């Protein structure tokens, strides 16, 4: 997404993902036989961000690796649109800036704009498609400045959708599209990928991370609502991208992951399965992530963001 400085550092990325008053971090390095290795994860308070980054610089060697942070959900907007006609790909971001004036709720003249090209040949439309990502200067500037103040400037600023795309790409079936649902406390993020790139994204107002003591009726109602929202969303995506077939919907690790898969299976027209990452990522340094679904859920976007190419 928003690339920044390019200094010479050790292999691997450290991803820092603010989530309200705390932050999730992960270091992912190239591993044996091309299998990315998660070296460590941690959670820290984010009430004093500059101080936290300074402490992490000392305790985790934050300054020794490339660093990427993620914008929080309310800090950016994704907009699917036609690519500018007769404009070279490197100039798309500049060309779509003014097209976003009536879509985003902040000034576009000073906003950070980047674009993700939708894979060609996936829809019946002749015009190339893209996903524009826009963040206001008021949201970007403090995030950049606090890292500079901590002597740990970001090499890139990313979003949850591209972090989840990186994870989906690891297990995507060849020649078919795939959907991935990541459920958090009060909402869920759905991404659909093809060829390792984003076809579509959607933020869903779903509450699926229910407490263990939730009664069966409340759980069934939440799952039924999720099934309806997902059915509508996947129907729309298949109509928009009719040149590819959606192979399956994967549910990211979370408490109750298997129960959700089993409930959604009969409600949807595509197979539903859990996202299993142990075959494509090296968890040997962090085995606790494989036995604690809630912990892996909280670190999932940090791991995905750290799966950036060198």
Task: Describe the fold and architecture.
The longest helix is centred in the C-terminal third of the chain and has 25 residues, at 216-240. This protein has helices at residues 49-59, 92-96, 137-149, 160-170, 216-240, 257-264, 288-291, 293-305, and strands spanning 2-3, 10-19, 22-29, 37-45, 65-70, 77-82, 112-117, 129-135, 156-158, 177-183, 188-194, 197-204, 246-251, 272-274. The chain starts with a strand and ends in a 5-residue tail after the last helix. The protein has 8 helices and 14 strands. By secondary structure, the protein is an alpha/beta fold. The strands form 3 sheets. Strands 1-9-5-2-3-4 form a 6-stranded mixed β-sheet. The model has no long low-confidence stretch (mean pLDDT 93). A hairpin with a 2-residue loop joins strand 2 (10-19) and strand 3 (22-29). Helix 4 crosses helix 8 (293-305). Among the domains are: 74-137, Nucleotidyltransferase, domain 5, CATH 3.30.420.380; 172-275, ATPase, nucleotide binding domain (Nucleotidyltransferase, domain 5).
Summary, kept brief:
By secondary structure, the protein is of the alpha/beta class. The chain has helices spanning 49-59, 92-96, 137-149, 160-170, 216-240, 257-264, 288-291, 293-305; strands at residues 2-3, 10-19, 22-29, 37-45, 65-70, 77-82, 112-117, 129-135, 156-158, 177-183, 188-194, 197-204, 246-251, 272-274.
